[in-house]
Write a structure and sequence with these properties.
3-stranded antiparallel beta sheet, YlxR-like_sf, alpha+beta, YlxR, single chain, YlxR domain-containing protein, YlxR_dom, Hypothetical Cytosolic Protein, Chain: A, 60s Ribosomal Protein L30, Chain: A, 2 domains
């Protein structure tokens, strides 16, 4: 459990964003939670991030001046998308992911898929036709080109992830991304 520097709520680390100070006192998002230094924790929500920036919460938490990057929100979103892409790649290399409509449908029918990763620019009707009424969680934050790069293709629209820690991490990261970007849903059913 960590305490948010804005809301003062104690939340699990998985629902928060960690920031540290770089050598020049610049604010660095530590999305993996592994950088050295005293961490400043913030609830992973767009409104909390805006309040932290406008009210000087980082300056107070660091007890001094902090260099705030002008594109902080974009850095966070890009970093979270990169973490999602890395997790899908890890699942692929571990044999816990398949791509392509037919293979994904076979995994769904066999009950081997715990999560669907769909291209954000893919067809909603195809997504509905594939997922049906199974209730399988869906993450749709990467484009078809970004998903395809993970599988060594030009594009990939449908990806199934096997049950396990990687699927759980993908849902968690997609939730943080959706909350920070202010999107209605990054992970859904």
């Amino acid at each position: 459990m960590r305490r948010c520097i804005v809301t003062r709520d104690s939340l699990p680390k998985e629902a928060m964003l960690r920031f540290v100070l770089g050598p020049g006192r610049e604010l660095v998002p530590d999305l993996g939670g592994r950088l050295p230094g005293r961490g400043m924790w913030l609830s992973a929500r767009a409104d909390v991030l805006e309040r932290a920036l406008s009210r000087g919460a980082f300056h107070r938490a660091a007890r001094g001046q902090v260099q705030l990057p002008p594109d902080l929100r974009a850095r966070i979103e890009t970093g979270l998308k990169g973490r999602i892409r890395d997790q899908v790649g890890l699942a692929r290399r571990a044999g816990q992911a398949v791509s392509g409509f037919q293979q994904v449908r076979e995994w769904l029918q066999a009950g081997r898929a715990a999560l669907l990763v769909e291209a954000s620019d893919g067809s909603l009707s195809e997504r509905d036709r594939l997922a049906g009424r199974r209730g399988t969680p869906i993450v749709a934050v990467l484009s078809a080109q970004e998903l395809g790069a993970v599988f060594g293709r030009d594009h990939a629209v449908h990806v199934a992830i096997a049950p396990g820690r990687i699927a759980d991490m993908l849902v968690q990261e997609a939730g943080r991304l959706a909350a920070v970007s202010g999107a209605a849903s990054g992970a859904g059913t």
